[in-house]
UniProtKB/TrEMBL annotation:
Its main location: membrane. InterPro entries: SLC13A/DASS (IPR001898). It comes from the Bacteria. It comes from Pontiella agarivorans. This is DASS family sodium-coupled anion symporter. Keywords: Membrane, Transmembrane, Transmembrane helix. It is found in: Membrane. The chain crosses the membrane at residues 12-29, 41-74, 94-113, 140-173, 223-249, 270-286, 292-311, 323-342, 362-385, 397-420, 440-458. Pfam families: Na_sulph_symp (PF00939). It is a multi-pass membrane protein.
Length: 470
């Protein structure tokens, strides 16, 4: 066994021990003002934190564990008796998290992303879209970032990064030793993937977690409204990121030639996929015209692509089902926190009414940034969104549930200061072209700018545009 494997096993063992201890504490320590059901959900919540941080078991396994524990401890089928007067939620509601409409929206995104990779649509689009940016390093970096960000709005950040890094590696191989353009080209990809993923509901799991939490409260945000709310500030962060990378990590005396040998497939299945993908995206963009919710639209390509064999059985089995389970666990966690009264107890520990909306929003954003830098972005959103949503609905707190959920989702996505912060960072770091210092400096800068923009100005713009849901 290697030293790394030994260290990893040790970390997991410690994580399991901490998780068990954390789970037991609320059963032996009584907290004033917290109900019996609240103590039980606190046990599950603390355990989830320990498991998600340590990754002692897979993230999606923790999500499944949350669902079954909530059924066994606070549902109408609880194995331990609950106090008289507690309105125990139906166990079917917790299982229902696995079939949330938001998950169907995300599943549709998976099918489009996998189909794009299968028919080389992603690589072909890169070849077409990158040509207008020429050969100057700063312009090539801009082109790569824009293409990566656009892809990440509809594809997995990880898949997008893997595709774009494959394009970049031949470029940096041709550059002379010591040319800082290598750093700029490689670093541009994960930065743009993380930023671009914020732009649509299907861009990244934290977005789905936020939408799921809002849907539980009866607040539904359309595909286009999410884009209108997020993209203006997303573009500012993206172009600032490009300016920083072009300024400090490119040498304009270099010349970059991009030669991608590929062509669009014209097989019947490829053409059918192009039509289905275009139709799905068009329906997402025109939701206000036809009235079909984006969650229903997202399920349409699933049915069509499976029925026609465009996505075969093997490809279907290889889908990122673990991500859907992770999102479902977050939805169930939020449901348990709310129905047990744990959220109100946690909120009552601090006098939020004396804090300004900007301060509260900034606090949420920074908490997501810090936590998302050391654990999974999805796990960060799963832990913080339920608390943020409950805080937003508490008396005297001047921040909307929408702002709360969206800020936490965006803050999670902007957490990219370390190689371990997100899979795109890990992929870029594995090339050996960048150092942790480069990633940390730029990641912190972009996180600070995002905090200022979203926490300081987003709600004002949303109200001005009249798109802030009630």
């Amino acid at each position: 066994m290697t030293e790394n494997a030994k260290g990893l096993n040790k970390t997991r063992i410690i994580g399991l021990i901490v998780a068990v201890i954390a789970f037991i504490i609320p059963f032996v320590v009584q907290f004033d003002g917290l109900s019996v059901a609240g103590h039980r959900v606190l046990s599950i919540f603390l355990m989830a934190i320990a498991l998600w941080i340590s990754e002692a078991i897979p993230l999606h396994a923790t999500a499944a564990l949350i669902i079954i524990l909530e059924i066994l401890f606070i549902s109408d089928k609880a194995m331990l008796p609950l106090p008289a007067g507690f309105d125990a939620p139906s166990y079917k509601g917790f299982y229902g998290a696995l079939a949330s409409p938001v998950l169907m929206l995300f599943l549709g995104g998976f099918f489009l992303a996998d189909g794009a990779a299968k028919f080389n649509l992603d690589t072909n689009l890169v070849r077409v879209l990158i040509k207008p940016f020429g050969t100057m390093p700063s312009r090539v970096i801009l082109g790569l970032m824009l293409i990566t960000a656009i892809f990440s709005m509809f594809m997995s950040n990880t898949a997008t990064t893997a595709t774009m890094i494959a394009v970049v590696l031949p470029l940096i191989a041709k550059l002379p030793e010591g040319d800082r353009t290598k750093i700029g080209l490689v670093l541009a990809i994960p930065v743009a993937a993380n930023i671009g993923g914020m732009g649509t509901p299907v861009g990244t799991p934290p977005n789905a977690i936020a939408l799921g939490a809002l849907a539980k409260e009866g607040v539904n945000i359309s595909f286009v409204n999410w884009m209108i709310m997020v993209i203006p500030f997303m573009l500012i962060v993206l172009f600032f990121a490009w300016f920083v990378l072009a300024k400090f990590y490119s040498q304009n005396d270099s010349k970059i030639e991009i030669d991608i040998d590929s062509k669009f497939e014209t097989t019947p299945k490829a053409i059918l996929f192009y039509i289905v993908a275009a139709a799905t995206i068009l329906l997402w963009f025109t939701e206000k015209l036809h009235g079909i919710p984006s969650t229903i639209v997202g399920f349409m390509p699933v049915v069509v692509l499976l029925a026609t064999g465009v996505i075969n059985q093997k490809e279907f089995h290889s889908m990122q089902w673990s991500v859907l389970w992770l999102v479902a666990g977050g939805i169930a966690m939020g449901s348990g926190v709310g129905k047990s009264g744990l959220d109100q107890w946690l909120i009552g520990l601090i006098n939020w009414a004396e804090m300004s909306p900007a301060f509260i929003a900034g606090g949420m954003f920074i908490a997501a940034l810090l936590m998302g830098s050391v654990i999974s972005h999805s796990a960060t959103a799963n832990l913080l969104v339920p608390i943020g949503m409950s805080l937003a609905t508490a008396p005297g707190v001047a921040i909307s549930p929408v702002a709360s959920a969206v800020f936490i989702a965006i803050g999670s996505s902007l957490a990219m200061a370390l190689p371990i912060s997100t899979p795109p960072n890990a992929i870029a770091y594995s090339t050996g072209a960048i150092k942790t210092k480069d990633m940390a400096i730029t990641g912190i800068m972009f996180g600070i700018l995002g905090t200022i923009l979203y926490a300081g100005f987003a709600s004002k713009l949303w109200n001005l545009l009249g798109i802030m849901p009630e």
